[in-house]
Amino acid sequence: MIDHDLVRQLRQQVADRLNDQRRRDQMNGTVPMTAEDEREYSRSLIIQILEDYARLEITDGRTPPSAEEEAGLASAIHSALFGVGRLQPLLDDPEVENIDINGCDQVFVQYGDGREEKHPDVAESDEELVELIQVLAAHTGLASRPFDSANPELDLRLPDGSRLSAVMNVCSRPSISIRKARLGRVFVDDLVASGTVSPELASFLKSAVAARKNIMIAGSTNVGKTTMLRALANEIPSWERLITVERALELGLGEFEDLHPNVVAFEERLPNSEGMGAISMADLVRRSLRMNPARVIVGEVLGDEIVTMLNAMSQGNDGSLSTIHANSSVEVFNRISTYAIQSQERLPIEATQMLIAGALDFVVFMRKTNEYAEGGKLVRIVESVREVVGHDERVMSSEVFALDPAAGVALPHAPIQCVQQLEAHGYQPLVHGRWG
């Protein structure tokens, strides 16, 4: 059992020595340590601190920590200094899917089977919880991100790939949500095995990626859009150069060099304390087009980057992938129009609908149901696939895959207009008494 009071005490000693070294380096004109150098240096400081603590325990007639206890303390101190402190066991647990924190002592955990449980405190106080997030924000990602009264919102990708969202000063207590990175190296066939897609739909999705169709993945929060995006991206040939654009790095396609050796990952940059230096998603999408991409992948569309992305898709950048929040496959077109009319371009709805028709090829809509309370489990499926087929004052589309209640997955529902292109890239429609 870890003594968290002792961890907090020893962590402060390590932090003080680390800060002393930083000041000495600055006074001597020494090049500052990199984040990785600081992590390694801190490991040596932790060893020194634990040796000092053991000697003190012996001097006072108490039993010092065993080798196993000392290793546990060292790990906990390092996690408290650079990691996620008491949250680490939850992040290490493969069954944990989501962590919601409404203050240091209000911690709720959702597991992969759908059950939800309250978890013990993750900090001694809300102030300590905020400090923990501030440390993470300072040492995670491409650049340090502030989390304070002037910057009360934070989005962050943790080292293990989990996505963290935090807010403070706009609610009574600091609130944090962590969405675990469930699957990194995932393929469409894995989604068949999990029941997310049918074999027919898997064949369609693989061929759509190979045929360089522009695909938008839609659904509600935590429905599996990012996992689907990774699976589709992992069907892209390894020789293609990929540019990813995200608010906070999450996709991690470049982590698997055998799958994607040529990846550039762009991350939105927030303004500094003087309000300068911001680089928006729209800016990054524009920049990506100048970086010789084979494909551009936008992690999540939430704003005015939609117009830039659709323009890119309609101007020859085929094979793009993205995700968007929506309640149905057909609602995606209205959601895009809403973002476009709020963008810097102020694109009217009719112009946006025309742009969508010339840019998007398919919308893949996903839905999640939690049947744990009824003795079932958490289920994620592709419920609908809609093909964009034209424009007549609005986007015209056809639902080519729809949910079959008996099968529990989406099956062929209507003829695919571009089916010959898909068949040229391996699509093998299976006949189910429908379209094949």
Supply the key terms.
single chain, 436 residues, alpha/beta, nine-stranded mixed β-sheet, six-stranded antiparallel β-sheet, globular, disordered C terminus
Strand content: 15-25%
Name the structural class: alpha/beta
Helix and strand run: HHHHEEEHEEEHHEHEEHEHEHHEEEEH
Q: Segments where pLDDT lies below 50 for 5+ residues?
A: 432-436
Average pLDDT over all residues = 86
- The total of beta strands comes to 15
- Summarize the main sheet: 9 strands, mixed
Based on Cα principal axes, name the global outline.
Answer: globular
Instruction: Measure the end-to-end span.
Output: 60 Å
How do the strands of the widest beta sheet line up side by side?
A: 9-8-10-11-7-12-13-14-15
Radius of gyration: 25 Å
Helix share bin: 25-40%
Please work out how many helical segments DSSP would assign: 13
Structure description:
This protein is α/β, with parallel strands linked by helices and 436 residues long. The protein is 36% helix and 22% strand. It is built from 13 helices and 15 strands. It has a 9-stranded mixed beta sheet with strand order 9-8-10-11-7-12-13-14-15, with helices on both faces. β10 (295-301), α10 (305-314) and β11 form a beta-alpha-beta unit. α1 packs across α3 (67-82). It is globular and about 85 Å long. The model is unreliable at 432-436 (pLDDT under 50).
